[in-house]
Amino acid sequence: MTTPTQQAGQVSTTTLLRFATAGSVDDGKSTLVGRLLHDSKSILTDQLEAVEHASRNRGQEAPDLALLTDGLRAEREQGITIDVAYRYFATPARRFILADTPGHVQYTRNMVTGASTAELAVVLVDARNGVVEQTRRHAAVAALLRVPHVVLAVNKMDLVEYAEPVFAAIAKEFTAYAASLGVPEITAIPISALAGDNVVEPSANMDWYGGPTVLEHLETVPVSHDLTACHARFPVQYVIRPQTAEHPDYRGYAGQIAAGAFRVGESVTVLPSGRTSTIAGIDALGESVDVAWAPQSVTIRLADDVDVSRGDLLAPTGDAPAVTQDVEATVCHVADQPLSVGQRVLLKHTTRTVKAIVKDIPSRLTLDDLSQHPAPGQLVANDIGRVVVRTAEPLALDAYADSRRTGSFLLIDPADGTTLSAGMAGASFAEVAGAAQDEDPAGDDAEWDF
Questions:
Q1: Cβ(373)–Cβ(344) below 8 Å
Q2: Range with the largest mean pLDDT of 83-97, 130-144, 185-199
Q3: CA–CA separation, 236 vs 91, rounded Å?
Q4: Closest CA to 345 of 398, 428, 419, 424
Q5: Of 247, 279, 295, 397, which has the maximum CB count within 10 A?
Q6: Do the Cβ atoms of 198 and 28 come closer than 8 Å?
Q7: Using CA atoms, how far apart are residues 329 and 335, in angstroms rounded to an integer?
Q8: Do 349 and 397 form a contact (C-beta atoms < 8 A)?
Q9: How many CB atoms lie within 10 A of CB 142?
Q10: CA–CA distance, 75 with 56 (Å, rounded to integer)
Q11: Contact between 33 and 21 (Cβ < 8 Å)
């Protein structure tokens, strides 16, 4: 996202890239992140000293860079990642928010959390093992969440003597699979996170590879997540009515603009009621402005005294989403307890939470061959499947393919508030992939570059 900042008459522009790392157990995700931070000079001296001290206590001569992200005691003791670890760093070219996600199957739900806001996903593969089931699962989650860029990092190339045929075979298999899911862009990079090959600096051991290093790709990949170009959406979070002597008739609707831009004088529709009005004023940081855009937090004032409350959605008249009580979506089930047909749940969409019932689970995705297992009856932890949900009140949902913010929702257990499933409204990636398979985009090696 390009964010102009004006101060003292000067305009500076920086870009921000959100990305997530994923892969199977022991593929070296945390080591890659640690190497990335270390070699890009993005860690403090005391952090490095703490890692060196912890490594010596474990009998290691060289510092274990994975400890830079594995912060939980259980993670360090077992040498695995359990929770999502967020790291913030910057280079002269770009700022980064990194989510290091776990590799174990039972923690796939954490990958959904880390990749839900990512513009790029780095999927690691151990060069000795190749593409495994968990690799396919992470590729499927990235495609399901509409992550526009996927990097295949074939790690531990030093353990296969930096052999080009090994890398080429893995890259071809993964690219064919990811392309069949509808992933729009796949870049394959051979690396050794432990030795630092092709992470920040080019490798002297793989002269057959002429592509970018991981950091070079992260710094140059196009970032096209400009929310201001999307359909304008404003979920109401809070109604402000001071009713004071200074502001006796003030009524404002506060929240964060989810997408697009709103202007004073623009006609808007309040959903789900369908009533229309005109924007009389927009307040941002205590000042009145003529225009506001995502992701600003503002207060919008309407010209008419219409009934608007928390959970309602403001959208431009003529560009409003359809209102429905029947939600068809793809979900990734993240709870230990299963999701069953007939189950009563709460559906949280933006700032609105409504009662709902699971009417049908038409299919569950089989990751090995991307086939749909019909009528499974229920979804268990880490399953990806299609669901049909009937809500007690109408909702204004966009298709997830059009808007990741207003096309997503959560299914929640009404008894204890546990998050059951993360949902994406509209067509699933598998339906998109059907068209992609007809075109055979992975039919030649031109789809991946090394």
A1: no
A2: 185-199
A3: 37
A4: 419
A5: 397
A6: no
A7: 17
A8: yes
A9: 26
A10: 17
A11: yes
Q: How many angstroms separate the CA atoms of 371 and 180, rounded?
A: 12
* Residues 226, 94: Cα–Cα separation, whole Å: 16
Residue 133: is its pLDDT beyond 90? no
Q: Tell me how crowded residue 172 is: count the other CB atoms within 10 A of its CB.
A: 17
The whole-angstrom separation of Cα 105 and Cα 415 is 26
Name the phi and psi angles at 385, rounded to 5.
Answer: -155, 170
Q: Rounded to the nearest 5°, which phi and psi values hold at 211?
A: -90, -170
Single-letter amino acid, residue 327: V
**Residue 25 and residue 102: Cα distance in Å, rounded?**
8
For residues 130 and 188, the answer to whether their CB atoms sit within 8 Å is: no
State pLDDT tens for residues 398-416: 999 888 889 999 999 999 9
What gap in Å lies between CA 12 and CA 30, rounded to an integer? 33
Pairing relation of β-strands 339-340 and 378-379? antiparallel
262: β partners = 292
Using CA atoms, how far residue 62 sits from 55, 56, 205, 221, in Å, is: 7, 8, 21, 32
The answer to whether 64 touches 77, Cβ cutoff 8 Å, is no
**What's this model's pTM, rounded to 2 decimal places?**
0.79
Q: What is the pLDDT of residues 217-250, one digit of tens each?
A: 999 998 765 666 788 999 999 999 987 777 778 8
In Å, how far are 101, 171, 363, 378, 383 from 337, measured between CA atoms? 22, 36, 18, 10, 12
Sign of dihedral through CA atoms 318, 320, 321, 325?
negative
